[in-house]
Amino acid sequence: MAVSLPPQGLSKEETLERLRAMGGNDVRWREHRAFGLVYHHSDAHTELMQDAHNLFLSANGLNPMAFKSLQRMEHDVVRIAVDLFHGNDAAVGTMSSGGTESILLAMLAYRQHARGHRKWIRRPEVVVPESAHAAFYKAGEYFDIKVVSTPLQSDYRADVDAMGSRINRNTIALVGSAPCYPYGVMDPIADIAALGRERGLPVHVDACLGGFLLPFVERLNPEERIAEIPPFDFRVPGVTSISADLHKYGYAAKGASVILYSDMAYLRHQFNLSTDWCGGIYASPTLAGTRPGGAIAAAWAALHSLGEEGYVSNARAAMETAKTYINGINAIPELEVLGNPPVTIVAYGGHGPDVGAYAVGDQLEARGWHVDRLQRPESLHMILNPGHLRVADAYLTELRDAVEYVKTHPDTAFEGSAPMYGLIAKAPLRRLVRKQVMGIMEQMHAAAGGGKNIGLPAEGAYAEGVPEEEAIAPIPPFLLKAMRVKAQLGRLFRRA
Ligand SMILES: Cc1ncc(COP(=O)(O)O)c(C=O)c1O
Prior knowledge:
The protein is α/β, with parallel strands linked by helices. It has 15 helices and 13 strands. Among the domains are: 52-303, Aspartate Aminotransferase, domain 2 (3-Layer(aba) Sandwich), CATH 3.40.640; 426-447 and 457-495, no CATH class. The strands form three sheets. It has a seven-stranded mixed sheet, with helices on both faces. A four-stranded antiparallel sheet has the order 10-11-13-12. The N and C termini lie far apart (55 Å). The model is unreliable at 456-473 (pLDDT under 50). The structure holds pyridoxal-5'-phosphate. Residues 98-100, 103, 133, 135, 177, 180-181, 206, 208-209, 245 line the site of pyridoxal-5'-phosphate.
């Protein structure tokens, strides 16, 4: 797709009009039809975020001497987070652009720390529960760290014995989530931290999702909560770092997270210095060079404008919303919520073989909901915010309809995207799936890409307008057919 600069600049109105038009096909998050990606507090709060962001739109945190304002704001944000997570005066940290960057930085810091303190290590390893976020694998690839994934307990929480059995002389850190993305459950942080202490290893708590929600849920009355929140932060001896995203339940503008350490002894390994560069002495605390001032200012503004009272009342509303969805889903006999999620991240799947979650997901999508799917087990995923309470009745009614439809139309398991998602979740096909996804990414970023209709192709190319010879190979139809036959036979035998 040839795109070039317009010879003359567009007017402000036309520029904005075109942007709005492009946004027109995006997911309908303002109507609460999506369950993730966007964390919306209120329209008034969004307006404040825009204003705060605008004030420091051009400011650059790269040079804290030039922008003392940003240095001050970052310091305030970090100290507030340290306070929320019960750190002492030794606890330190920085802001980053998001959860992934915070996790990358922690893994980098632990690798560098190990290089100084465990000099025998050639190939460092980090032990994580299987539910740890994909960002840890990204860190592994970027920084040449082996990520050792360990199985979960039946309630989807980390199995600390399994983690302990995978520690060896190359291990540089342990990881737990509070809560994890897939199942929304809290790993047993106290046990992971005890293991870390026993084996002399630092422990990272990934509170990217829960960091700015859990401390306020803890402040609610017991009857307002779903469950008691076990300590997950610096109160737990042995926890040495925490990542927590302001752009999630902190309700800041996108591009804001914190990475905190119990001690400067770790943080210093995150810093990067080039003292011999002809361009001058260059020091950067995080992965970025230029650090956007708008995101830092908006994060400061979110914390100060909502204050403790604002976050607590939001947590109260979020808990009511989560209870409504969890109870509503569990009341549908064919479905069940996975594990016991204590806050707002919920995954659910089919009870028996007759109602597949992917087929239900297709039906929800046909009714206008944006659906996220997990691979193991076959299930659907939601991240809830208070706004979702407004659509809970509609969602649960349509979910019941969707389940009824799938029950009475067994072929839905072999139609739409359901068989494809079922197929790609199967272990033997990992390499094929990888090839497919790589092909999609290449097309998306190729000259002909850009905003096309994308997704894993079941039977053909993903992008309209892409010449057939350039289109990525579809998942072979014989595999899809084989899967349909296998599922149909399975059903026949179950009936027999
Ligand atoms: C538990 C957890 N960790 C890390 C991340 C990565 O955060 P980001 O998308 O801001 O990079 C997420 C994102 O959802 C998450 O849920």
